[in-house]
Amino acid sequence: MALNQKEKEQYWELRDEIRHMILSRLNDEQIISVTAGAGPVLCLAGAGSGKTTAMVYRIFHLLVFGPDYDPKAQPPDSVEAEDLDKLAGWLALPDQEGLSFRDLLTLIGQQGIPMQQILAITFTNKAAQEMRDRLEKLMGIPIQDMWVMTFHSACLRILKRESSQLLDYEKDFSIYDAGDQEQVVKEILRGLKLEDKQHSPRAYMSWISRQKSSLKLPAQNYTPTGNDFDQVAPLIYQRYQQALQRSNAMDFDDLLLQTVRLLKARPEVLAKYQSRFQYIMVDEYQDTNHIQYVFVNLLAQLHRNLCVVGDDDQSIYGFRQADIRNILDFERDFPGAKVIRLEQNYRSTSRILEAANQLVAHNKERKDKTLWTRNQEGDKLYCYKATDDQDEARFVYSRIQQTLAAGGSYGDHAVLLRTNAQSRVIEECFGVYQIPYCLIGGLRFYERKEIKDILAYLKFLSNPDDRVALRRIINVPKRGIGDSTVQRILEYSLQSGQSVYDAMNDREGLALSSRAEKAVSEFLSLIRELNERKTTENVTSLTDSILRRTGYWQELQSDESREGMDRIENLKEFMNKTGDYDQSHAEGSLAEFLGEISLITDMDMVGDEARHNAVQVMTMHMAKGLEFPQVFIIGLEEGIFPHFRSLYNETELEEERRLCYVAMTRAKDKLYMSCAARRSVHGRYQENPPSRFLTEIPDYLKDNFPPKTERSFAAEKKTRMAGIETSWDHWNAAGAAAAAGEPSSGNQITRTDPMGEDKKEAGFRVGDKVVHASWGQGVVVSVKQSGQGLSYQVAFPDKGIRDLLAQYAPLKKL
DNA sequence: TGGCTACCGGTTTTT
DNA sequence: CCGGTAGCCA
Fold first, then answer.
1. pLDDT tens figures, A603-659
2. What is the phi-psi region of residue A625: left when phi exceeds 0, alpha when psi lies from -120 to 50, beta otherwise?
3. How far is residue A498's CA from residue A506's CA, in Å, rounded to a whole number?
4. Is residue A290's pLDDT more than 60?
5. What does the alpha-carbon distance between residue A626 and residue A620 come to, in Å, rounded to a whole number?
6. Is A301 one of the annotated active-site residues of the chain?
7. Strand B nucleotides within a 7 Å radius of protein CB atoms
8. Looking at residue A219, what DSSP letter applies?
9. Which residue's C-alpha is at the least distance from the C1' of B9?
10. How far is it, in rounded angstroms, from Cα A589 to Cα A657?
11. Distance, angstroms, CA A476 to C1' B4?
């Protein structure tokens, strides 16, 4: 029954009120960007100005009300009189109590943009995840149909969907990470007899990366005239790209480069994505490099509904060829763009904000901008000058303990580092004191040896051209195929133009010694068997077959060392992941699984809950876009931060300063900044003066940390020591009290952890201290139901958070 | 071919 | 401090 006129008017009023109520959560500038509708939009958003909020609401508004809200638009036909009560109910209780987003969509969403026509791009997986979380929370429904992802994931998805049309590549291509790339470059250097200090593989890798990110393809038939880096580099690039193509492999830069090439070469493919993505949003636009710029511009050309968000003060990826002109020239590239400035900061206390503003004002290359806040003044910055890096770590620990005692939770804290290597001391310290922490970034999940091994098997089964994978597995576990034999196979495959797999099959051509030939043919029959299994088995059982049939499993099981046990655990963890994959992808394929996993880091797999129950440790680069009540920035010393590579280069120094600005503006309530007089770097002690960034912040905004803390810390430490079995001898030297002290006051983690109260799943609960057969003591930080049954996320000293399955994991309560 | 020792050198930041 | 590897011997 359609609505009568009176009901219609009621409906219009209700709809308008709902929209109004949603928008009332935003400030005027945010509302302008949220409702800007069609056409190009440039949003210059300062730190903490609610730009993610603006983007999330912009998407939400597009989905529900469409780009061009018409208060008198006809209600959808399906709306009936009693639905008016539902809408009124939603107004009274907007937090999805009475009405889901889906209901809202059917009731008023007729003019909305369909989810699949939206593309939102971020820089890191973490930022993409954050945006997804917020969208899902706001809407109350999963958003699988929307592309919210990094540049690299978006490109990978396009390449996989268009795999029949690729230029220079076949469909099941591999993805090479930095390690794989290095292998390739090394092999090329070996071939050119250029293996010495003058020619570091990494330097060539970054040169090649620079070429690719400015869309430059390798020269054909290039001949160097000398041995200088500049002369050789183009040749290396040419051979490198050939090698990758022969292996049917792409590196990370290729994901973008090959996508752009594809879009340019195949107008019908470009047209498809151009028309699909009606609305495109790009976060952190100041950090796009040339090729990312081209990618976005290609896609946005048709509808021109491109909304970019960024802040020139937060440009920190210059080293990756981020080009700040992309954002500065946006208005030129998209004439008629609406320009919106978000300058009110909602995140930080006014002192934190002022300190950050004062710091970044030392940069010359910037647009002047006035970021302001109505937030409270808050505390001054806590500055601590530690005697050494361990003392600095203990400072962090003792401050965390203090907030915990005051009712805070671990997840409120973030420790921000300049380099990943700085995490070691923090991890050791947190391990000793049983602080659950979450190391974000660091190793990519599959960078552990045993994971790389099993992945290399999978890659080779998926892509018989993959030379790097073959090299890795051909003699692992040992099966008597030595280096010279491997060399022969690789060379012969080049000579004869066959895939490495076919080359191995070509006995006559290879002409190996009889012993080597026997070993190779045994390996081949193994591969053949696994290849057959590939067609019938899912990823998990294929992985299991590989581990059993190669003897890898057996070899590890006979290894009694701690390392061996770790590896077994890691492999089990890996099989959890494959299990999850198999369960959620009924039609999944090995190649798809490999693609998915290669862009994922460790932390993308840790549950939300786990993250919130642990101190977050990460580099400042990873922290961009995130916020925390309490932030520690450590290592503020000349040579560490600013990093020594940038000390004598004004441009790079300014980038370091922006990085510091980014780090400081992550803090909501409290900001701690510390330096150490002495720090161990590569096993040697280094003494660096405090960072200029500390002195650039005026004194009236800083408090030097009271020296009495050291003493109170000693007392505190005394009460905590007992009951902790982890080795902490090396901490003792610098520390105060001896181990003899009364037992710690019970289970302080359960006591202070608010989550511990209501989590009562079978076995363990959040906050329980547990012992793992091979990893020792840890703390349960979350419990969840996974594809494989109940699983625990447990924080271990030195290991960070691991996913463990309740039914298999050798866990005991402490 | 494989295992061992003794050196050397590297060391930003991300996908 | 760590990992990679050159060089040696079984």
1. 566 666 667 788 999 999 988 888 999 999 999 999 999 998 888 888 899 999 999
2. left
3. 9
4. yes
5. 10
6. no
7. 1-3, 9-15
8. P
9. A197
10. 45
11. 19
